[in-house]
């Protein structure tokens, strides 16, 4: 009983970290099907809606070297992650923005939104870009995915990453998933 009570106290204090870990596991494709997702949510005591549609926003920050040097990596990460959460999700305590990939030159974030109003999300993303331009020298780009079921989130993440990888010229703007495409083999040029 005491052990359960201690776990309950810990869970209450660390709920957002448990939620963020769930989203990261989901984005990485660590679940076989919706039943496994539902089971894990129950085990974690999370009340994330499985019957709801979600919109995934891919946020790419590039040319970040100068900002990292100026603010230090941990401060920069903290400010960016929480700014994305506050502007996109309206939450000062982040529980839906996951840092996914990082190198010396770029960082990728995914925001999981219950809001499926694409125009509202576009306004929020533009606000994020405007804020970012005022404070930092690096480049931020947002790609808003199509609404999807919770079990489709890993595939949507992969699609958004591929779309942005092949459309590297898309920068400092907000685009929708259906506005860009992966070029076919005849359109890809390899420079020697």
Gist of the model:
The chain has 192 residues and is an alpha+beta fold. The chain has seven helices and six strands.
Q: Can you tell me about this structure?
A:
By secondary structure, this protein is α+β, with helices and mostly antiparallel strands. 48% of the residues lie in helices and 18% in strands. It has 7 helices and 6 strands, in the order αααβααββαββαβ. The longest helix has 18 residues.
Quantity of strands, as a count: 6
Number of helical segments?
Answer: 7
Task: Indicate the mean pLDDT.
Answer: 89
Determine the strand fraction and express it as a percent band.
Answer: 15-25%
Question: Residue share in helices?
Answer: 40-55%
Order of helices and strands: HHHEHHEEHEEHE
Structural class by sheet pairing and helices: alpha+beta
Uncertain parts: none
Inertia-based shape: globular
Distance linking N and C termini: 67 Å
* Largest beta-sheet characterization: 6 strands, mixed
Rg, nearest Å: 18 Å
């Amino acid at each position: 009983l005491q052990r359960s009570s201690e776990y309950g106290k810990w869970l209450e204090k660390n709920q957002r970290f448990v939620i963020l870990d769930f989203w990261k596991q989901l984005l990485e494709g660590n679940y076989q099907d919706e039943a496994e997702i539902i089971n894990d949510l129950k085990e974690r005591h999370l009340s994330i809606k499985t019957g709801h549609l979600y919109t995934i926003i891919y946020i790419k920050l590039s040319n970040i070297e100068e900002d990292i040097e100026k603010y230090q990596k941990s401060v920069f990460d903290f400010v960016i992650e929480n700014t994305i959460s506050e502007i996109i999700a309206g939450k000062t305590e982040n529980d839906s923005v996951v840092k996914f990939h990082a190198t010396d030159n770029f960082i990728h974030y995914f925001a999981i939104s219950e809001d499926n109003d694409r125009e509202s999300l576009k306004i929020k993303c533009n606000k994020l870009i405007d804020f970012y331009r005022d404070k930092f020298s690096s480049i931020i780009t947002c790609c808003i995915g199509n609404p999807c079921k919770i079990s489709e989130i890993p595939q949507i993440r992969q699609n958004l990453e591929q779309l942005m990888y092949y459309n590297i010229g898309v920068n400092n703007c907000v685009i929708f998933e259906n506005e860009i495409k992966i070029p076919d083999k005849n359109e890809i040029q390899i420079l020697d």
